[in-house]
Specification:
The protein contains two helices and 16 strands. It is mainly beta. The strands form three sheets. An eight-stranded antiparallel beta barrel has the order 1-2-3-4-5-14-15-16. Strands 6-13-7-10 form a four-stranded mixed beta sheet, with no helix packed on it. A four-stranded antiparallel beta sheet has the order 9-8-11-12, with no helix packed on it. About 15% of the residues are buried.
Length: about 220
């Protein structure tokens, strides 16, 4: 049997190499320069826009039903995740206790000015030594005379007046034993300003994904040409 010449062997090797596909290259790591631009997050019943500026600042707008929300601040990218931070930080709305007088029993709540004319005020009743909204709680509508219906056998240790449309929950107002008759004043402060500190957006096929659990919404920002 004749042994193939060296030149022919080399040609076969080169041909085989040419037919072997090159290994796939890993995707480029996203950087501030590659991500900067305008993004549209619009979907059914949602209008949203995000602008990532090359200098590390961002602008954000959201319209969802009756909710209008904006934010501005700084952004960065770490481990392929975009991080938005509101600057300056938003000052949350709050309810100021104008007066708290004893009542024979129960809980009565009045506002110096209704938040929405014609809409019944709702409060969140909290329980326990360290009351928190994400633990045991009950919602209750305030009657025209200010009385708050409390579930039988329960004793709330704090309550939060809810703000229509906005998902923000102000700080709880503590309750001591006995009846209370509250008069509250609402201070909106930076209501409508999203307080990102920071807000992560994952990157999937060039789309920035922002989960908004407080709104039960998933925003998908697609880069605009």
């Amino acid at each position: 049997m004749r042994t193939p010449c060296l030149a022919f062997t080399v040609l076969l090797t080169l041909a085989a190499s040419a037919q072997t596909p090159a290994p796939p290259q890993p995707p480029a790591t996203p950087t501030r320069a590659s991500l900067a631009g305008a993004y549209d997050g619009g979907q059914m019943e949602v209008a949203a826009q995000l602008i990532l500026k090359p200098d590390g600042h961002f602008q954000y707008e959201l319209a969802y039903g009756a909710l209008d929300e904006t934010a501005a601040g700084t952004w960065d990218v770490k481990d392929s995740v975009v991080l938005l931070t509101t600057v300056p930080a938003a000052v949350p709305p709050r309810f100021v206790v104008v007066s708290d007088t004893p009542a024979p029993s129960g809980l009565h709540v009045k506002l110096t000015k209704p938040l929405v004319e014609g809409m019944r005020q709702r409060v969140l009743l909290l329980y326990g030594a360290n009351p928190r909204p994400d633990q045991d709680s009950d919602e209750a509508d305030v009657a025209d005379d200010g009385q708050v219906p409390i579930p039988a056998g329960k004793h709330p240790t704090a309550f939060i007046p809810e703000i229509p449309v906005f998902p923000t929950l102000p700080a709880p107002i503590p309750l001591t034993a006995g009846g209370h008759r509250f008069v509250l004043r609402f201070e909106p402060n930076d209501i409508g300003k999203a307080d990102f500190h920071p807000q992560p957006l994952t990157i999937q096929d060039g789309v920035l994904i922002m989960p908004r659990r407080d709104l039960q919404l998933l925003l998908r920002f697609k880069r605009q040409p």
